[in-house]
Automatic annotation (TrEMBL):
Key words of the record: Oxidoreductase
Protein name per the record: Vanillate O-demethylase ferredoxin subunit
Database matches in InterPro entries: 2Fe-2S_ferredoxin-like_sf, 2Fe-2S_ferredoxin-type, 2Fe2S_fd_BS, Beta-grasp_dom_sf, Cbr1-like_FAD-bd_dom, FAD-bd_FR_type, FNR_nucleotide-bd, MRET
Lineage: Bacteria, Pseudomonadati, Pseudomonadota, Alphaproteobacteria, Hyphomicrobiales
GO MF term list: vanillate monooxygenase activity
UniProt EC number: 1.14.13.82
Pfam family membership, one: FAD_binding_6
Amino acid sequence: MKSKQIWRKARVISMAEPAADVRMLTFAVDGLQSAFDPGSHTNIKVMINGAPAIRTYTVIPSAPGTLSIAVKLHPNSRGGSAAIWRMQPGDETEMTEPENRFELSWRASHYLLIAGGIGVTPIYGMAEALAARGQSLRMVYGAKNRSLMAFAEPLQALLGDRLQCFSQDEGQHLDLEAEFSALPPDAEAYICGPLGLLEAARDIWRRSGRPMSRLRYEVFGDNGRFAEQEFEVEVAGYGRSITVRADQTMLDALTDAGVPMIFDCRRGECGLCAVSIVSATGEVDHRDVFFSQGERKENPRICACVSRLCGGTLVVDTGYRREQAA
């Protein structure tokens, strides 16, 4: 199961590098007329190791009829970022019309925006939209060093002293507890960044007694503890072993092999693709934000869209039975 996608032809028309390891591509998209809200994402078709693949990226503010994405080059990625970095002006592909599952509510008296590294991509558009409407906001932005802070200059020009940046190399660290305690009761926080940042934010927000519905977050794909490795997955009732390549998700490998799967977000947030773990000969690398830390430690289930096994063989039970399918 997946959401409806409208694919359109797209062509690279410009390139820029807003940070040392980030490349921004702008595409002219055929027939794209409707505007998109901040926090939206698009799917793009790329070639990885000679095979077609689909990757998902946040869209950032751009001119009408165009879509822009900003992609960090990840050394341990499944090949998507490298494929995007190889694109040049004039190259053609296909992209979906933007969808939004990380929406601003427009109901709060004050908004706290938190970005970690390349997690700035949805936050950038939110900051622009909130500032344009005169909303009360503050943005905090952290990265390893300032050269890795994409869009820091336009954000500084837009927000002034409402933006505070933190560089780890300069010994600066974001104090989430202080940030949350300073918020009015009906404020909302929107956060995108590494898994550790999101988990810390959820824990502190929950301990503060604030409604969890007022903490909104989005995860990005570079959240693994280990580099991608090939592994085998066996499905109870299926009768054979399926290889999950290093540049492939377990969800894609299973669906390509004909195993019925339920899925939606493909970002480890909704939990629809979670399957039961029967056994594992390698270490499970949980990369989702759906399960709690305790659930990931106990290891009963795994989100097939993002999480992996660090080599070896994983046996799962999806509920699939060949005789039932027949």
